[in-house]
Design brief:
mainly alpha, 0% strand
Length: 496
């Protein structure tokens, strides 16, 4: 577990730390026009890596896949730290993202291999706590390292941590032999890679770099849909599909993936990215440690995730945890949608803490349910599919819900005459706002509150859909699979 956590920490930190240093990196390498690709490229290849590693782990062994993924991430980190140009750095980030996505999926599948079904929630909750902790300290570490050591050390400091993880995994990780063998689904991987890339680009570009009805966004969406259609055809004909169609015929797996896509994917990432804007522009909070602004949400999420891991040790408890978690999240999003310029910081913190409670119950519960409800030979593919959908959900949350936020904000400013003379009324930084006249600052605060309200009403609707999905979870799911896994573990133990 120590080795696995050491493998996960640099992966979770990397995106947040790099985001903090992005302006410094772009300034030194002379690539401000390409600054968005530092993060976008990482996200694109991570989506591909998450789905690729699941099936490969099932076929050729989880340990081999994990070590390979760690080495890919290690190579990408070294290349990023030595980058001499923006193109070099973007290529290195692509390698990092591919390795990182493979590591993330394989780690979660490894937990399903090493932990008995009744203890998976506890182990997964420990792994799940790494993400919110990284969100808290990531921006701070990024600023500290960039200021005192230089931005290259953001990537180079990954090397000792990942090296220790590689050694620990190579020596200590003992897994049951469950290789299925066979031919890699190259066609499915290609179609899925094209689909995920096109969808992420459409969601990243839409409402930000290009209008939603622009040829670029529409073209990317069409390519994504055609690739998904090709994927459906390919996966029905291949012997070892990367995203097995039969998984989606399992009601427990399907609704759990819907919950992950909406909650810890779309809603969480939208909240992470846009709540700090409300706190800074409406409530005047400092942006120097942006991660600290989210402490009420993240700390409650960590605590509840650990408690939920202890609670869901029996199959019959997954459904109540999912129903309560999605319901709390829906209520919390509705409360956040009621905020305006008169809402106090304490009340905002309480609403954020409630969001954390809902998310904490959903961090790992749907994933463990998916693993318990899937056949032993399909756990990796199921985990990869779930992590892939969570990644895509996060992209859509930041893109679509973020576009609703910025569109409402810009429309409010335009309607009130505050955008006169501004080419992009939504492009407002806290520093710019503080230099404006008081009356204009108030208008901007009102516009930001309006955008936040619109976004969280949409998030509330998404959470209600997640509640419906949770209600569709079978009451006794996981019990049959748990007994099957226990029999398999006993047989393997008897065979030495």
């Amino acid at each position: 577990m120590i080795s696995l956590i050491l493998a996960l920490v640099p992966l979770q930190l990397d995106g947040l730390v790099a985001a903090t240093a992005a302006p410094t990196i772009a300034g030194e390498l002379g690539g401000f026009g390409q600054i968005a690709w530092i993060a976008t490229t990482y996200l694109l290849t991570m989506a591909v890596g998450t789905i690729t590693a699941g099936r490969i782990g099932d076929m050729f062994g989880r340990k081999t896949t994990l070590l390979t993924a760690l080495l890919i991430f290690l190579a990408g980190s070294a290349a990023a730290g030595l980058a001499g140009s923006m193109a070099w750095l973007i290529t290195a980030r692509a390698i990092q993202g591919l390795g990182g996505g493979m590591v993330l999926t394989t780690l979660m599948a490894v937990i399903a291999d090493v932990a008995p079904p009744d203890k998976r929630s506890r182990y997964q909750s420990v792994m799940g706590a790494v993400a919110p902790i990284s969100m808290i300290i990531g921006p701070w570490i990024g600023g500290l390292v960039t200021e005192h050591l230089g931005w290259r050390w953001i990537f180079l400091l990954n090397l000792p941590l990942v090296t220790i993880a590689v050694i620990g995994v190579a020596i200590l990780l003992k897994l049951p032999s469950r290789r299925t063998g066979g031919r890699v689904d190259i066609g499915g991987l290609t179609a899925l890679s094209i689909a995920s890339t096109a969808i992420v680009l459409a969601m990243t570009w839409g409402g930000h770099q290009y209008a939603w009805d622009s040829p670029q966004v529409i073209g990317a969406a069409v390519v994504g849909l055609l690739a998904l259609l090709a994927l459906l055809i390919i996966e029905r004909r291949t012997a070892h599909p990367v995203m097995p169609p039969q998984l989606f015929g399992n009601r427990a797996v399907l609704v759990s993936m819907v919950i992950m896509f909406l909650s810890t994917g779309a809603i969480m990432m939208a909240a992470m990215n846009y709540l700090p804007i409300f706190l800074q522009l409406v409530q005047g909070q400092s942006a120097s440690n942006s991660g600290l602004l989210l402490l009420p949400m993240l700390l409650s999420a960590i605590a509840v995730s650990m408690i939920t891991g202890l609670f869901t040790t029996q199959p019959g408890r997954f459904r109540p945890a999912l129903i309560i978690g999605t319901s709390v999240l829906a209520v919390a999003c509705g409360l956040l949608a009621t905020m305006d310029t008169g809402t106090s910081s304490w009340l905002t913190g309480a609403y954020m803490a409630l969001v954390g409670v809902g998310l904490g119950m959903l961090f790992q519960t749907p994933l463990v349910l998916i693993q318990n409800a899937s056949p032993a030979g399909e756990v990796g593919a199921a985990t990869g599919s779930a992590m892939f959908l969570r990644t895509i959900g996060g992209s859509i949350g930041v893109g679509a819900l973020g576009s609703l936020f910025t569109g409402t904000l810009a429309g409010h400013l335009t309607d009130h005459g505050a955008a006169a003379g501004r080419t992009d009324p939504a492009a407002l930084t806290p520093a710019q706002v503080h230099g404006l006249p008081d009356q204009l600052q108030q208008l901007i605060a009102q516009a930001t509150a309006a955008g936040t309200s619109a976004m969280f009403w949409a998030a509330c609707a998404a959470a209600v859909v997640a509640v419906v999905a949770a209600l569709l979870v079978p009451r006794l799911v996981g019990g049959h699979q748990q007994r099957a896994d226990e029999k398999l573990i006993k047989v393997e133990a008897d065979q030495g």
